[in-house]
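thread: overnight batch results

M.L. [08:02]
morning all. the overnight job finished for the chain we discussed friday. pasting input first so we're all looking at the same thing
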Amino acid sequence: MALSMTACGNKESETVTPDNSTTPEAVETQPTQEATGTEETTSRDDTGVYPNATGLTEVAMGVTEDICTFKVPLNYVLAGGYYDENNEEHTIQGLNSATTTVEEALAAGSFSTGNHLAFFTMTSLDADQTMITTGMYTPDIMSWDDFKAYYTDAKEIGDESVPGLLYHVEAISGQCVAVAVKVSDDVTLQIVYEGSLEGEIGEDELGQRLYELVTVK
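M.L. [08:03]
and the structure it wrote out:
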């Protein structure tokens, strides 16, 4: 079964099987901002997801409006983009480099462009090579019910107000842990993790930690 998923280009024209991956970080406290803004930052990694993180911040995510935040590390490289009114994908200025860290992007105002961050890939610059990929899916691409029907072996996590699914996908490094979070009635956020934590803490604990990176507004 091939499902319309997106990574770059036209949201309606690309078709791939639902697999992906990513990673993030923090600095001094900053006020929450509209459209792709940031929340307060912290000086340590309390998520248990990001090895060697120098700090954390929360970046807003959404399609037509910001509907959740995602905890990311300051010293990870993040590249991301948004959907325009024609459902075409675009990179966000300042979030299109293979070397710019979250901290540097914050300082440059790249999370405050007025565009809603809908997808990103985040990578550690350290030897651990942790990578996290996220993407928001609307019903025309893949609905929440589609996720449940496609990943028949998925474990249910989260709660009734913000349900989640834990499953595996084929990513760059092979089979990887993935989590889908129903962040609104019409939008599902998929998180794909590539790194060493599954072997260290198990898929259930890793899935819960990935789920807790998301805060629904």
